[in-house]
Structures
1.
Amino acid sequence: MLIRRPSELAPSDITSPALYARRREFLQLSAGLALATALPASAKLGPGKASTLSTTETPTPLKHVAGYNNFYEFGTDKEDPAQYAHKLRTTPWTVSIEGLVKKPKTLGIEDILKLAPLEERIYRLRCVEGWSMVIPWLGFPVSTLLKQVEPLGNAKYVEFITAVQPDTMPGVRRSVLDWPYIEGLRLDEAMHPLAIMAVGLYGDTLPNQNGAPLRLVVPWKYGFKSGKSIVKIRFTDKEPTTSWMKTAPQEYGFYSNVNPDVNHPRWSQATERRIGEFSKRKTLPFNGYAEQVASLYTGMDLRKNF
Ligand code: MTE
């Protein structure tokens, strides 16, 4: 349903040859991991419409994007998710959207895929640990999903709750984090056009280790704000306590906007290393998206609200 014939494509719809070379790399990689066979046929994705919100920086090679991950449900080593996440059951998959809304709904992933045309968004991802990547996501604005349930006037925050599958996720047997993994945004942050729900990357379905079948991507915040494998979305009037805030409140705040001037208590955030490169580069305020998002925080002291 999402794959269009070549005659229907405008030049701007066509993904660059470099991306397609990487897509081939992905298919080779995923053949080995049997990812493609684990996915429902309906989940095969097309290239996606290119977005003006994309960075022109070179995407990080797929072997790093899908091979160097944080997904603690599958273990805390960077290689654990690629090794173990093939067991994650991604079908059937539903997402319930509830709380302070007029029309609570439970949607199947197939219904979610029909809500909007997919766009390719090439975004920088900056991890709080000091590394970064550039990832060509396929997705659609978070606002498209949230509008389905008609949020009430007193809804101020959105909580994103992710899957717990004890039989497929070896990591949830350990109490490194409080499961399920929970993230949260202020409602206006979640409705911002840069915030997307990703269902794919590099022109194909999301690898399980990157949060299949549906994950949040908020490019101006540290990577951990982007919850993977979401099963529930709840609108609230109180700031949600996220998993990282519960585990280490002195280290991880609710906002977690990328900020080179606010150090993590144990290390600097002034620079970052792009995965696959050797030298470090300067970290930019809001991960380089200040022009688009700084106005969301007018009047706030971002040293206190880290
Ligand atoms: N989502 C879940 N459910 N579990 C996790 O452990 N880790 C977060 C975030 N989303 C995490 C998660 C962190 S710390 C980062 S940096 C990003 O996912 C990493 O995304 P990537 O592996 O796709 O690069």
2.
Amino acid sequence: MDLSSLPREKWVGDDYLVQLGGFWFLPQFVKKNKRVINNYNPLPNDVILVTFPKSGTTWLKSLLYSILNRSSRHKLAVEHPHDLVPFLEAQVFAEADEPPALAAPLDGPRLFATHLPYQLLTKTLDSSQCKVIYLTRNPKDLLVSFWHFVNKWNMEKPNQSWPLDEATDKFCDGVIPCGPYYDHVLGYRELSLKRPKNVMFVNFEGMLEDPHGYVKKLGDFLECPFEEEEEVDDIVKNCSFEMLSSYDVNKSKESTTWFPTPYNSFFRKGKVGDYKNYLSNESVQRIDTLTKERFHSLGFMYGI
Ligand code: A3P
């Protein structure tokens, strides 16, 4: 595919993003995204976790893996959640149109993750009975998490540090990988209204407040309900920030094979409201106004 034909925008330092179907992506992901869009045919019992980057993907991957693979959930102590639950675009379809990783397992559903927006997967998802779990996170914490993550992956390029004001401008303009954020969330909201039985919305803040309740709801949604409360408690504890971030595999400074960031960059604080330590009042107001315009005006009272 000829990238030069796609709109592009300057992003961090000398890096730029390219636009595909109204969304911005790192150039190295365009071909991989197209492979997913053109070749992924979900099985009716596939489970797909969809998130905007920095919403808490790593955490929910761990929970979903544990819920669906109860007897092997101890694997989280030695394998990174991103290796146990691969991203369709970055891992499964990274190299081939028909990857071997798509083979159906003998037992249970396949579990994948993606950051691709519904607007680019409309045909794929409208024609399938697969289950979609969409994770949201309030935009201010998400932005701060994104900003930290980008600065971590650019650590070796000292001239490429990303000032927070610039990150805020880019976020509000929608020019951020997989952005615009608001269009991403609203796309999946549309899908959830169309197919409420197959789509479950989960939010980071709610999960932190009541992880036990969420794990049970996820078990019901995935048609593998829990019989014992202790098992739910055990999964919650094993996937807590404290536990996951204590494992050597998740503390590793080694870079993942599919993205130039260390394994440990997916664990930072895992809290709600950290934006208060970073964003100016002006930035908070700007994002809140945008959230009201984009979410609240549609009756989706989320994000502030
Ligand atoms: P912070 O940067 O705010 O700490 P993603 O997995 O989508 O890349 O999101 C990363 C964010 O999820 C980071 O947020 C990270 O610390 C947080 N996170 C990772 N594991 C978590 C867990 N077990 N519980 C709560 N938050 C977690």
